[in-house]
Amino acid sequence: MTNYDVYHGTGNDFAVVDADDAPEKTAFGTNLCRSLDVDGTLFLGIADGGERATMTLVQPDGSRAAMCGNGARCAAKWVSERTGRDAVTLETGAGPRRCTIEGDTVTVEMGTPAFAPDDVPLSREAAFVDEALEGYAITAINTGVPHVVTFVDDVDAVDLAEMAPPIRHHEVFPEGANVNLATAREDGGFDQRTYERGVEGETRACGTGAVAIAVVAASLGEIPETGEVTVSPPGGDLTIGLREDETTTLCGPTERVLTGEVSDA
Ligand SMILES: N[C@@H](CCC[C@H](N)C(=O)O)C(=O)O
Fold it and tell me: What is the ipTM of this complex?
């Protein structure tokens, strides 16, 4: 039997498994996603007494994602509950990500987002900034994984399940893209809805997507280039920090919802 915990970060939910307990990750992680109906399985390997941990995300379709903002928040909370530490560096496919834990609130250093075609990646040599694609004005960015952001009058008035797949699978994105809708609110924040690659559907929150919305909004002159902005997916509020050195942070609540065990067979 293998033990697991289920956490969510603003409604983005994950099974969390000790990497040492699961020699095979892809089939095991995919099956766990499907049986628990969660957005991903995180395999975590604590190292250096809890100073560091490796993080591998297996998604419901069997794919692996280099980075996951809400997954990183849940992972840091899981490590903290085992080590008693209030900080951990997660080794992700997108590089090391320092996380700090204060009670149930976790902040992740999300690094520097990139618009360059090789970084997103794009199958062309020019960045994709506020340009029409499949009927929407979109901007493409990598915040650890590829994202598309489009600003609309009302995120809830759009049929995300219908509009997102042609963009998510468009040939201009050789590795695909997560698709984010954003609506500016009068309080300076943004409403968010995200269709996620790997889940192949809408999730209740996406951390790398929230960072993408804030950074794209700043780059288009919609909000100041530095400071904090609240981005609100259906699952709650996320605080995005935009720094002068162009690095970003993601902060929000986490919650452990259940603990269980599953047969390895
Ligand atoms: N939910 C995540 C993003 C997970 C990765 C994404 N589905 C992909 O395949 O790129 C987040 O909180 O950032």
Answer: 0.99
